[in-house]
Amino acid sequence: MAMKVAVTGAAGQIGYSLLFRIAAGALFGPETCVELRLLEIPSAINALEGVAMELDDCAFPLLDSIQMGTNADQIFDGVNLALLVGARPRTKDMERKDLLDANGAIFTAQGKALNAVAADDVRIGVTGNPANTNALIAMRNAPDIPAERFSALTRLDHNRAVSQLATKTGSRVSDIRKMTIWGNHSATQYPDIFHAEIAGRHAAEVVNDQQWIEQYFIPTVAHRGSAIIEARGSSSAASAASATIDAARDWLSGTPDDDWASMAVVSDGSYGIAEGLMYSFPVTTKHGNWEIVQGLEINDFSRAKMDATAAELVQERDMVTELGLI
Ligand code: NAI
């Protein structure tokens, strides 16, 4: 059996890292072949052909076929997983509303195409920014696909938070469980260690340093993207691809029993977050389904941060509503 995986923006930076990992079996393991469906805009098709030549040259045993194109209805036909990476970057003088509008055009069209032609079991992960609101737009333009099949990527933030916590406490990343990113994949996100564990111990107690949490940990995780642009001269790509893989793999195959993942999914009102927002929660997953972890105690510090990032998502939702995108 082969899984049909669509990747949009496949000729971009993230695509260049992501496609080779998928083709090597990182999503479904060594028993499942993959058919890649790569969507690009016309000006990037030449570059995409070069990437496909390199994929051929890797002679990946699990890679059954590569289909490339600019027509979403053709590329998404029968896909089981769609990783929506391609998006319109923010350019100079662009207001947030212009950015939402430009991306809205992409994600309304892709939502409609997925609605029309994707496989019945399709799962859709949105990496392209502004990821949460792009996912909301795609979801709302795909009325026949259950809303739970859409998610936006906050796994990179989650992984960044795990790594920072491991460094601070001198522990291994594999000892850290139950990290949470709440809210928007933006500077307002809230990386929360109050429920996290380090080798079974309460992380916030191990750290025992509220000043580090507030003045170092949260800003470092939330502004890591800008720090990487500053240092590298371009935005995070390999780590974003790796997180895109982690998120999709865990969604499809399940989180471990004693852990959870952070994923932006449609809110059902849990933790007082407005229903219908595409908000990052702690989730457990099994067989391609997710459930928001319930019953976590939220302290006042966390509550304020969770509400602030929710307020930003409400603003984004109001803007795309006003623009007629949803
Ligand atoms: P990039 O600019 O290198 O590549 C984007 C690709 O998307 C380009 O090849 C472009 O031609 C293509 N594209 C644009 N419109 C398209 C459309 N309508 N259909 C298909 N393809 C289209 O950008 P990069 O570095 O690969 O990043 C991609 C996106 O991921 C950006 O929006 C970036 O902000 C976002 N990102 C998200 C992260 C997250 O954690 N959620 C982390 C890092 C990046």
UniProtKB/TrEMBL annotation:
Domain Lactate/malate dehydrogenase C-terminal positions: 154-320
GO MF: L-malate dehydrogenase (NAD+) activity
Catalyzed reactions: (S)-malate + NAD(+) = oxaloacetate + NADH + H(+)
Record-annotated active site: 185
Keywords, ordered alphabetically: NAD, Oxidoreductase, Tricarboxylic acid cycle
GO terms for biological process, alphabetical: malate metabolic process; tricarboxylic acid cycle
Limits of the Lactate/malate dehydrogenase N-terminal domain: 3-147
Alphabetized Pfam families for the sequence: Ldh_1_C, Ldh_1_N
Record flagged with keyword NADP: no
Keyword Electron transport: no
CDD domains: MDH_chloroplast-like
Binding site for NAD(+): 9-15, 103, 110, 127-129
Assigned protein family: Belongs to the LDH/MDH superfamily. MDH type 2 family.
Biological role stated in the UniProt entry: Catalyzes the reversible oxidation of malate to oxaloacetate.
Protein name per UniProt: Malate dehydrogenase
Taxonomic source organism: Enteractinococcus helveticum
